Amino acid sequence: MCQQIIGKVISVKGNKATVEIKGKIKEMLSPFIKVEKGDTVICAANYIIEKDESGMICK
Predict the structure, then answer these.
(1) What is the pTM of this model?
(2) pLDDT above 70: residue 8
């Protein structure tokens, strides 16, 4: 089963990104990867851990 949370990046400021997850807006830290507005990302806790490049990750 999938434990990660899928979200969409709304804005980026430094190593923080504002992500929309299921209609809720959350501040996420992105220390490991560079994300841009419009990216679909995978979050765990309050970190962005991966970009969904393929669009194939569990929906």
Answers:
(1) 0.78
(2) yes
